[in-house]
Amino acid sequence: MEAQVRALLLLLVLTPSTAEKNLTGTVGGSITLPEPVLELGFIIYGTKTVAIVVDGKMKIVEKMYQNKLLWSDRTGCFTITDLQKNDSGIYAVDRKESGVSTAYKLSVFDSVSAPTVNRLGSDSCVLLCEVVNAEETTLLWYKDDEVVKQNSSAPSLSLTVHEQDYKSSYRCVAANPAENKSEPVNVEETCGPTYTGRKQEETEDRSRVIGIVVSIVSVVVIAIVGIMIKKRYHNQKPTAAQGPENSNRRPVH
Ligand SMILES: *[C@@H]1O[C@H](CO)[C@@H](O)[C@H](O)[C@H]1NC(C)=O
Ligand SMILES: *[C@@H]1O[C@H](CO)[C@@H](O)[C@H](O)[C@H]1NC(C)=O
Ligand SMILES: *[C@@H]1O[C@H](CO)[C@@H](O)[C@H](O)[C@H]1NC(C)=O
Ligand SMILES: *[C@@H]1O[C@H](CO)[C@@H](O)[C@H](O)[C@H]1NC(C)=O
């Protein structure tokens, strides 16, 4: 008898800590509770019964779940759709068919907004990552897939990159427990003034060379054309003048 009571107490103590599983969702999205009910069972939100499954058919009890709760007769799983923040809370799936009850703690988060990255100033390479709606959002800076800086409560997070690291791959990630979005940064392009400077010089050099070549070619062409015109003019003049001479010469042939 005493042993039974002790076992019951132990069960009561253990139940809350082992049963609850965390689930996260995004506003507007949906979530499927993995515990299936195929023949007979309930889904409960807090203390309210939301729906019942009897003989392989679901009946919604709570009116507000009418267009919100789906149940698959194939898998036996419940899906809550069009999630809102007030859908957060404890859900329990009671399988009467097997006596199993599984509790889920659902937390619904706003969709994460994409972060933007800009360079601060022009002397050193300081990158500022910002997010519009920072509530419940953590900002993280990754260098080659490793977190180098993070802040869970700030709308912006700066990072200083040294020149020897310009070739590394950097990205800023905005994350909440439900999802995350990232923004890659090409540091060499954003912060490499020497690199862009050299590029520009090269381009300038090339256009200068092209300019010189074009000038030389123009001068040569003009010269050739000039010579040709002069030659023809020179040839024609004597022809006209020496006309009689030519006709005089004809008999020689
Ligand atoms: C569920 O989330 C809470 C914080 O909200 C955490 O303390 C707990 O360890 C999590 N449980 C599991 C099973 O991940
Ligand atoms: C939850 O929030 C949605 C929209 O924000 C609202 O339409 C709905 O009535 C709320 N439900 C409850 C139970 O407060
Ligand atoms: C995180 O951001 C908050 C708010 O801007 C600031 O007070 C705190 O010092 C920051 N923590 C770190 C580690 O940067
Ligand atoms: C971002 O989401 C992916 C899966 O969508 C996950 O594997 C990764 O751990 C998340 N990163 C952070 C920082 O939350």
Automatic annotation (TrEMBL):
GO terms for cellular component: membrane. Its main location: membrane. Pfam families: Ig_2. Residues 121-188 form the Ig-like domain. The chain crosses the membrane at residues 209-229. Residues 183-203 are annotated as: Disordered. Residues 1-19 form the signal peptide. Keywords: Glycoprotein, Membrane, Signal, Transmembrane, Transmembrane helix. It is found in: Membrane. InterPro entries: CD2/SLAM_rcpt, Ig-like_dom, Ig-like_dom_sf, Ig-like_fold. This is Uncharacterized protein LOC114851816 isoform X3. It comes from Betta splendens. The lineage of its organism: Eukaryota, Metazoa, Chordata, Craniata, Vertebrata. The gene is LOC114851816.
